[in-house]
Amino acid sequence: MRFIELRLFAAISCLSFAAQFFLPSPAPAAAHPRYGGTLRIDMHAASVSLNPEQWRVGSLDAAADEKMAQLVFERLVALDNYGRFQPALAIEWSHDGSNKRWRFVIRAGVKFSDGAALSAEDVVSALQPLLPATEQISASGNVVVIQSSVAVPDLLEQLASGRYLVYRVLAGGALAGTGPFVLADAPVGHLYFRANEETWSGRPFLDGIEVTLGVPPLRALFDLQLGKADLIELSPDLVPRARQANVRVWISEPLTLYGLRFDDAQSAASDVRLREALSLSLDRGSMANVLLQKQAEPAAALLPEWLSGYAFLFNVDTNLERAKELRRGLTANEAAGAEPLRLRVDPAGDLAKLLGERVAVNARQASILVQVIARPVSRPGAASTAPSDPPSGVHLFAWHYSSLSPRAELDSLFAAYNLTEAQEVNATSTDHEQLYARERRILEDRRVLPLIVQAESVGLGAGVRDWMPARWGEWHLADVWLETASPALTDPASTANPAVQSSPQPRATAPGAKP
Amino acid sequence: MSFRTKLFLIFLVTVLASVSLVAYGVTHYTQAAFEESDAQRSEALVSQFNKEYAQRGDEITRQVKDITDADVTLKVAIDLARPNPDLSLYVRDAVGAAQDHGLDFVEFVNWDGTLISSAQYPARVGYKNDWVTANKNWNDSGFFLRKEELPDGVALSLTVVRVLSGGNDKNMYVVGGRRLDQNFLASLVPPAGTRVLLYRNLEAGFVASALTDVNGPFEQADRLEPLIEQIQKQPRPTVRTIDWTENAGDAESFHAIPLMGRNNELLAVLLLGSSRKELVLLTRHILQIAAAVAGAALMIGLLISLWVSARITRPLEELAEGAREVASGRWDTVIDLRGKDEIGQLASAFNEMTQTLAAQREQLVQTERVAAWRELARRLAHELRNPLFPLQITVENLQKARQLDAKQFLEVFNESTATLKAELANLNTIVGRFSDFSKMPAPQFALVNVNEALRNAVRLFEPQFNAVGKPPVIPEYFLTEPLPEIDADADLLHRAFQNLVLNALDAMPAGGTLTMRTTEHEGNVRIEVSDTGKGLTPEECSRLFTPYYTTKVQGTGLGLAIVQSVISDHHGTISVSSDEGHGTTFRIELPQRQSVQRVAPAEEPAPEKKPPQSFTVAASD
Questions:
Q1: How many angstroms separate the Cα of A333 from the Cα of each of A420, A445, B174?
Q2: Rounded to two decimals, what is the model's pTM?
Q3: Tens of pLDDT, residues A62-110
Q4: What secondary structure letter does DSSP report for A288?
Q5: CB contact under 8 A, B122 and A283
Q6: ipTM above 0.90, yes or no
Q7: What is the interface size between A and B, counted as CB pairs within 8 Å?
């Protein structure tokens, strides 16, 4: 009997071993999701803030903040990859004919991570500071009403993106959310999230998420290759290398605009001819295709094609001869000949600095002397320039698209960079023609010059399954599960309740829940 | 300055000059030796730099060759040689190559000069580097200094270019280099007391910030500006000394070496600084030693010169002392000096001289004594003959009168006895005067008002100033008031003044002016008595105070001798000046205080008033 058992075991083992080599591997999607494990994420940002009120709209820091906040907080509505609005904390919504009054019915039975039930008043408290001044929000029973002084037909796009997250401020200032994860601990350089057992959409597959902050790009790639991380942010220059190393790479739609904006702080920058000459000297194609190794696209518009739909209408070709001609028509001072046109690189990082230097090299071809001043900009509220720095005539900026509303995005961008529009412009219209006209007028003045738009790249570990992010950058980690579970997060809450792993609450499949 | 001092100073100066000469010689030759050593050290440093420079170039050449030989580089070259290569694939390759091979600068350049990848300036990717393709024989070339363009400026690079064939007659160029900056300076190990600076000649003119040492920008760059500018004008090795401060010890010699580029353009200047502190310290040390030796030599010289000068000058001093003793009257002074040298002979001659002088003095004294006795005898004979002759006549008259009758005899006898008495009295007076001179009393000092004493003495002669039948004598007083009282014997002073006034009156038989003057002069009291008589000849002046010398027919020659005696007893001086035909002035200077104890007025017995007749007698002399 024992001999037969041994033979049977040996045969099965041999078959299994042979199957590994000769039979095709089952597709990951075909595997059943499993609960458990901790997803390890390496992020470039050195710190994050989960409080949406503290985010600086459009900044790269806010992008990282938003990614982490989406683990803990939720919005009223969500947009799926097919462009359909899905219920989230609001289960239904309606608006009047003028699109000024919006009514949202709050989902019942939703609890914050501290156990408190979500109410319409909580939604009002969370969103009122975030909404623009033209919009007033009020609660009535389980209904939230947003009354705007102007028509906001794109309110759902706004509420489905950006910082419009619902949270509750606890005693002591901590924030509680209704999202799939709860922030368990936040020592310096790390964030530990654990699964929210009480979330209305069902417990996430992951037991927890361990985020390491401030990881340099190359180090993050090494961590991924060595199995020390499951998900990393990939810098564009490392995408080819990651692909060569057979790392799974996901690339979003272009999410970050790099551009130049002029500042009258340096007199030379106020001359439109100089701005035009500089614009014509820029070789955006080389920037995107050579320097960034095709991990970016040349940008002629402020909003990307996927967001606006009309970006293809803008076109800026390099015309060095025309640029030189314009330059020759300028006096020395006008052309920054007496002193170089100072280009301050506002975003931190090598990419922005490289772009700034490329701008300087391009400009020099048109005999425009540009001095690059690379200095990282700290968190919101910090001064972007040191007091002793000379005034800069042009800034290289990075703008992270955070709203799904082109109008809101354009408004935010114009407001952030003090791009004033003519009074006859209908700034509240969501009509694409109107938006195109607004953007065209701004670009014609050449106070702001788009350079490139860059996608977001993510490197994924081999064990990460059901990675189904939104193409505009939302990660949807509640749907992710790990094929080979990493050691469980040593969180007191999770270790105190072993039943969580053994009998998890299944993910909700009710209408409105994420797939 | 004494002879001993002179001798000492001469000896001292001789020693000092000798020591200074030796110290100067030692310092001079030491400095020359140090300069030579410094030059050798600088030469060694230059040699070391050249060696390091060459080694660094060889190292870069090897590193660039390693990059060229790497399979991955060959793959890039092959890919680039294919038609329509994707240039973006290799943008980051130069960064990896630079990191892997420890180079600061690495660039890949396509066959057509397009920059494919750049470690130091990735923003320039896609632009042309035509200077690379201009030379096809890079593999036979060595390293060279190059001005490397960077995003934040320009740097100096030790550059090597190698060519890699990718096929299809298309080459790829690998440009590698390392920065020539303060890190390069830090890799040099200069000897102690030296340092290395580097001036990067990347812009026209002198730029202070372009001068660096191992720690970064050199702070006092402007001090080296003339040297740099000189090299910029004429790029050739130059040496110059820089005085950083007023302290010579802070000076530094700089050897400037121009570093040229491929096209023989000046790209950098290497400055090898050699501190002169050691030289200065050595010089100071030598000077200190010289000073110490000089001091010791001076001390020894001082002692020796003291001993030598004492040995040489002691006989001279004894001779001088002997001469002083002879001068003070000790004619029998004998110097006890032995030796046969010149000083011994001088001493012997001195002793012979003093013996001769003593003998001659004794002889002179004898002669003078005889002469004095003769003079005294002559004077006595003259004085005594005058009364003796009437006595003889009277006695002879008495003898003759014995023949007369009694009445006549009595008459003659009475006249004769009266005459005898008178002449005898006269003899007695003469004898008394000599007796008085021989018995001049010692002065009894008390506080005396000189002006008052002078007025009292003159007042006695006022009747004679306007005597009937005689030309008038006008007394004039020029007395300083108040005049300090002096220690003096009032009687003797009175007697001396009387003799002077009497002498003046005798000098003015035709009348005139008698002038009395008192002043305070250098702590003494000066008394002048002047007449307007006929004056004295110089010979008369010189013998005026000699006892028994007189120019008058009726005079004992004792008046001025008494005056001189009184003044001498008062430790004063008397002198006479005379302008023949215009008058004579006697000048007396008396000290205010006498060393002998003054007679207290309360205890002082009333001075014995001598009979004025005695002064009258004296005055009438």
A1: 26, 20, 40
A2: 0.62
A3: 999 999 999 999 999 999 888 899 999 999 999 999 999 999 999 999 9
A4: I
A5: no
A6: no
A7: 39
